[in-house]
Specification:
Strand content of chain A: under 5%
Chains: A mainly alpha, B alpha+beta, C alpha+beta
Largest sheet of chain A: 2 strands, antiparallel
Largest interface: B-C, 79 and 84 residues
Order of helices and strands of chain A: HHHHEEHHH
Helix content of chain A: over 70%
Largest sheet of chain C: 5 strands, parallel
Shape of chain A: elongated
Helix content of chain C: 25-40%
Radius of gyration of chain C: 24 Å
Number of strands of chain C: 20
Structural class of chain C: alpha+beta
CATH architecture of the largest domain in chain C: 3-Layer(bba) Sandwich
Radius of gyration of chain A: 20 Å
Distance between the termini of chain A: 59 Å
Strand order of the largest sheet of chain A: 1-2
Oligomer: heterotrimer
Structural class of chain A: mainly alpha
Number of domains of chain A: 1
Distance between the termini of chain C: 44 Å
CATH class of the largest domain in chain C: Alpha Beta
Number of helices of chain C: 18
Number of strands of chain A: 2
CATH topology of the largest domain in chain C: FAD/NAD(P)-binding domain
Number of domains of chain C: 3
Number of helices of chain A: 7
């Protein structure tokens, strides 16, 4: 059986963590652009940035790297999980929670929910903008832009959507809380001096990203 | 003080038989008794009644051989930290309590009988590379290689693993990473083991995967349940060594 | 005709081993492949021997009773391993280690064997370090030493309180390496049932597969027994639950002589007995005596109040404490050898000064050491031992003194072997605790690990070759011959007989009764009357066992009760031989203390004129008493004198 593995368990985990860290950088870029929508009634900053992201050739290429990253992270995550389930065909009658990293127990669950969210999120924004062309135009300084900002604001004025969005992001936060520090452990970075910082930073990052993303729909809805 | 308990014990006649939980009441157990002594008392009662005693692994009964391996009330080695089952004492339980006792559960650790499992998989991993490849005789003087005290101590920390399998039992993925990394770390930290560090880590990880242990998802449950407090820094060290071996 | 030839090489003591090796027969590399060796047991002696023999190229089959060779009871040794490295520059030498070991053994060990042991002790440390055994080190990166009972130098190498574990894992790793190479075949969860002789030579063994219950036959050109000691004859001991004397006993019944069966060691620092359900005793390392001071209350009334639970040890004033070891033995103080320390504890408790609820305990106090060195130093030295104590007793030894009491720990006696570690059965060798060889009447701390590894790494791989050299043309053994049939039938017969009894009493209940007889009469203090009573009682108990024992379950498959019954059946015979041996030895020496033979001060009194010999007992059949052969001990390099630990 062993020979059929292309990668060892450790290699798979290393790939998972590298891709994961890459995805976190994407989350940060995405969050930064989203925040541009706030405090700017003309939505110019946001729309220009969105336009740039949608048209710049380098970004267009990089976009596929990102998709590939997502796919790899998902596929490997599922493979790892299936192997893990197979490693214990018969479970315990009574099992205490010994795990020290709380959300580590639910990575597959939070991961799957994030995928579901991504699909909906994609169909709401990305696909509309990219393929359906259902988005209105707006003009800044004589240049035409898709008014992505308006689409976002319209969505976030629906209470149901805001609630869905907030829940999804909390789940993402749980995923990240374990993910960031775990990636370092998988890459072999664990040191009595630095690991406490990495652990703390992981939680900090999870909170910043989650709160940052949640802030946007709440702000728009309440405004 | 003496207490009465109900034991819910996994009984399984042999590896291929289906198993089931059976309830056994035990009475008048001294809280000064060890958990295994309580099991002895139960077994004496069963034998006296002509029934088969409950099979469980145990040997040194002082927490070092790594033989004892009971999953008690949801935790490997039971409700206390940094101990083996044989060091667990009945003062950790309340009168009238029901105690669920199960074998280690993992595909590479098949149940042999009742609460006994086969941990040959651990031996196989060690055989794949958990040693320094030298023969008896012809070695340098023991003081010929000075070793930094800090590294010697870290190596000793890792080497104190007793191979009980609690890490595998506790891990939701039945991963053996803590066990394997403890051995890899011990040798990586010492100049004697450095020589073949790359081959060792690759071979041991490959064997671990082949045997069907799960993948490490850094839940750190292994560290929490390890009777010898082996640290997960060993897992990181192994990951690091493995990466170095793969890219070099 | 006596078969007792110790085969000690000629020449000066220091050159005997070198001369032996220079002149012995060897097996050439190509021929080693043609030769099979069976090793029973995977502790320090067995594991090291199997690995080393595998490295040399022999086909080795190794058997262990646990699920893995890593779990042999050598693993439980805590304190350390002696070697004459003289790294601390405190005056140690091979001769001094030899001298201390012979003296510690109360002049009842063979000079040549002990000298060889001291000689190879240094190689052991080198070997283990090369294997990656993480011995304790100084800040400069070199190895650290501590002192141990019975020595005036620091020669003990250690790995925290887990030296035995680390050394065993070293041997286990070497063994694993050979298993991987294919030179060693590993058989786990197997118990040796008997040894098979063909034309007077050991040619194989019958083992019981503990999982399937099947009897298996294994043949070889030579058999090595490294099956440990028989301390569990006392039921309560520091030995592991499966440690047993059956392999040695079966060898004895097939013709190997049994050496000094009455020499068992009582370890002074164990956690006291706390209840009748107790299954074993836990050792606290002797190294604790480096910093702990042993005392009991001076006044009997204080002791009584402590036993009643109305007084705490910490409430007893300094002047009301009797540091009896320091008082009686000023030169060695708390570091007197084990037999001396154990007897002194018993003496105090018998006088009514004992502590704990049973009055069968003394204090081991770290208060002064903590004040002198700081808690962190004590924690670094003994942290894991203190933690272990607290888990068991539920008291914090940093705050209140530990309670300790002597317990059966080690058997110096064992299968009689010659200089080559060969028994009186040609082709049957014995190493480690299973043989009687190196410790005389008392073993010094940190010497068991030394002996096990010495036998395994550095003695057996040589001496076996000397035996095997003329065996290269003997083909691999078939196990379907008459000899194997006969022995297997014998074993099966015993098993059938046990089931056929179908009585009322459990195996353990018999074992506990045997243990009490042994402890009361063949334990720390013995006398003629008691020993005679013990022999009578054991014979009665043995009869009762064979008419009323209950072995439930099936013959096939795993049956733990059957395993225990088989072992106990042997203990019920061995116990009697121990008592007979103790009765024969009309003197006190080392662990063997006959109340009739003591000095006016109560110290052990040897009788060198009449008892400077090894008792080697020959089995004469079921209903005939064993026959005693005497191997005279000749001391040419050491002056035999009364042991004195009062002055240096």
């Amino acid at each position: 059986m062993g020979k059929s593995y292309i990668y060892s368990s450790v290699t798979k985990k290393v790939i998972m963590s590298l891709v994961g860290l890459f995805l976190i950088t994407f989350l940060l870029v995405h969050l930064t652009i989203n925040l541009l929508l706030l405090f700017d009634p003309t939505r110019e900053l946001f729309n220009v940035a969105a336009h740039f992201m949608g048209t710049n050739p380098l970004i267009q290429i990089f976009q596929w790297v990102l998709f590939g990253g997502f796919a790899l992270h998902m596929i490997l995550g599922v493979i790892l999980q299936v192997q893990n389930w197979m490693a214990r065909p018969k479970g315990y009658k009574k099992k205490a929670a010994s795990e020290k990293s709380l959300f580590s127990r639910f990575m597959i669950h939070t991961g799957i929910l994030i995928v579901v969210f991504l699909v909906i999120h994609f169909s709401d924004f990305f696909i509309k903008a990219k393929f359906l062309g259902e988005i209105g135009e707006i003009v800044y300084n004589g240049h035409h832009y898709e008014d992505m900002g308006l689409l976002v604001i319209e969505k976030f004025q629906m209470l149901g959507y805001v609630i869905f969005y907030v829940i999804a992001l909390l789940i993402l936060g749980f995923h990240l809380d374990h993910a960031f520090q775990s990636a370092f452990q998988s890459l072999g970075v664990n040191h009595p001096k630095y690991t406490p910082f990495i652990m703390g930073f992981s939680r900090f990052l999870a909170i910043v990203i989650t709160v940052g993303y949640i802030f946007i729909p709440l702000f728009i809805y309440l405004k | 003080m003496n207490i009465n308990l109900t034991l819910k014990i996994w009984r399984q006649a042999n590896q291929d038989a289906p198993g089931k939980f059976v309830d056994y009441p035990v009475e008048n157990i001294s809280t000064e008794a060890s958990f295994l002594e309580m099991m002895d008392i139960l077994n004496e009662e069963l034998v006296a009644k002509g029934e088969e005693p409950v099979a469980f692994d145990h040997d040194c009964r002082e927490g070092i051989c790594g033989m004892c391996s009971l999953f008690i009330n949801g935790r490997p080695h039971g409700p206390d930290d940094s101990i083996t089952t044989c060091q667990l004492h009945m003062r950790k339980f309340k009168d009238g309590e029901t105690i669920v006792i199960e074998p280690w559960r993992a595909k590479p650790f098949p149940v042999i009988k009742d609460l006994m499992v086969d941990r040959t998989a651990f031996d196989e991993i060690i055989q794949a590379g958990g040693y320094v490849n030298i023969n008896t005789g012809g070695v340098p003087d023991a003081n010929a290689i000075p070793i930094r005290k800090e590294n010697a101590d870290l190596a000793m920390d890792a080497a104190s693993c007793i191979g009980c399998g609690a890490c595998v039992a506790a891990c939701k993925n039945a991963s053996a990473m803590l066990f394997v990394s403890a051995k890899v770390s011990q040798f990586t930290l010492l100049p004697q083991g450095k020589v073949e560090a790359h081959e060792r880590v690759e071979n041991m990880v490959a064997k671990m995967d082949e045997l069907g242990f799960g993948n490490c998802t850094n839940t750190y449950a292994c560290e929490a349940e390890c009777p010898k407090d082996i640290s997960i820094t060993n897992i990181a060290r192994m990951n690091r060594e493995f990466l170095c071996a793969k890219v070099s | 005709m006596t078969k007792l030839d110790s085969k000690i090489p000629k020449g000066p003591l220091a050159e005997k081993w070198t001369n032996y090796k220079a002149k012995q027969n060897l097996v050439n590399p190509a021929n080693k492949r043609k030769v099979d060796v069976i090793v029973v047991g995977t502790g320090l002696a067995g594991g090291a021997a199997a690995a080393s023999l595998g490295e040399l190229g022999f086909n080795v089959k190794v058997f262990c009773i646990q699920d893995s060779p890593r779990r042999a009871h050598s693993i439980a040794a805590q304190g350390g391993i002696n070697a004459a490295k003289n790294y601390p520059n405190d005056g140690d030498s091979v001769y001094r280690l030899f001298y201390d070991t012979v003296k510690g053994g109360d002049y009842r060990a063979r000079e040549a064997n002990v000298y060889r042991l001291a000689e190879v002790s240094n190689n052991i440390i080198d070997q283990c370090v090369a294997q990656g055994v993480p011995f304790a080190r100084e800040y400069g990166g070199l190895l650290d030493n501590r002192s141990f009972g019975g020595a005036l130098v620091s020669r003990t190498f250690y790995a925290r309180g887990q030296t035995g574990q680390q050394l065993l894992l070293g041997a286990y790793s070497a063994l694993s390496k050979e298993v991987n190479k294919g030179s060693v075949e590993m058989y786990t969860r197997r118990e040796m049932m008997d040894v098979v002789l063909v034309d007077g030579r050991a040619r194989g063994i019958i083992v019981r597969n503990l999982v399937t219950g099947e009897l298996e036959r294994h043949g070889a050109h030579a058999v090595v027994l490294a099956t440990g000691g028989y301390g569990n004859v006392f039921f309560l001991s520091t030995n592991a639950m499966t440690s047993n004397g059956s392999a040695a006993w079966k060898a004895y019944k097939k013709g190997a002589y049994f050496g000094n069966p009455c020499f068992v060691q009582i370890h002074p620092t164990c956690i006291p007995v706390h209840g009748d359900y107790q299954s074993k005793l836990t050792l606290m390392s002797e190294s604790l005596r480096n910093d702990g001071r042993i005392w009991v209350p001076k006044k009997k009334e204080d002791a009584e109040r402590i036993q009643a639970g109305t007084l705490k040890p910490t409430e007893i004033a300094e002047e009301d404490r009797d540091y009896y070891l320091e008082r009686r033995y000023p030169a060695f103080g708390n570091l007197v050898p084990r037999d001396v320390a154990s007897r002194a504890a018993k003496e105090r408790c018998d006088e009514g000064h004992g502590v704990g609820s049973t009055g069968l305990a003394v204090y081991l106090d770290f208060k002064d050491a903590i004040e002198r060195l700081g808690k962190h130093v004590i924690e670094a030295r003994y942290g894991n031992l203190f933690q272990m104590y607290e888990k068991i007793v539920d008291e914090n030894p940093y705050e209140t003194p530990m309670m300790i009491y002597p317990a059966i720990h080690y058997s110096m006696g064992g299968i009689w072997v010659d200089y080559e570690l060969q028994t009186t059965i040609p082709g049957l060798f014995a190493g480690g605790e299973a043989n009687f060889s190196d410790h005389g009447a008392n073993r010094l701390g940190a010497s068991a690990l030394m002996q096990g590894l010495s036998d395994g790494y550095f003695v057996l791989p040589y001496t076996l070759q000397n035996y095997l050299a003329d065996q290269i043309n003997v083909p691999h053994f078939e196990t379907d011959g008459e000899a194997f049939d006969a022995v297997e039938n014998e074993v099966q017969g015993t098993i059938d007989k046990l089931f056929a009894v179908n009585g009322k009493q459990t195996v353990d209940s018999f074992h506990k009764r045997l243990g009490l007889i042994m402890w009361d009469h063949v334990g720390m203090a013995r006398n003629k009357e008691g020993l005679e009573k013990a022999i009578k009682d054991i014979i009665t108990l043995r009869k009762e066992f064979w008419t009323d024992v209950k072995v439930p379950g099936e013959k096939t498959g795993m049956n733990v009760e059957l395993e225990k019954a088989l072992r106990l059946a042997d203990y019920l015979e061995l116990g009697e031989l121990m008592a007979r041996d103790a009765l024969d030895r009309n003197e006190s020496c080392g662990g063997h203390f006959r109340e009739e033979y003591r000095t006016e001060e109560g110290e052990a009194m040897r009788d060198d004129e009449n008892f400077t010999y090894v008792s080697a007992w020959e089995y004469m059949g079921e209903d005939t008493p064993a026959k005693l052969h005497k191997e005279p001990l000749i001391y040419e390099n050491i002056e035999v004198k009364q042991r004195n630990y009062k002055t240096a």
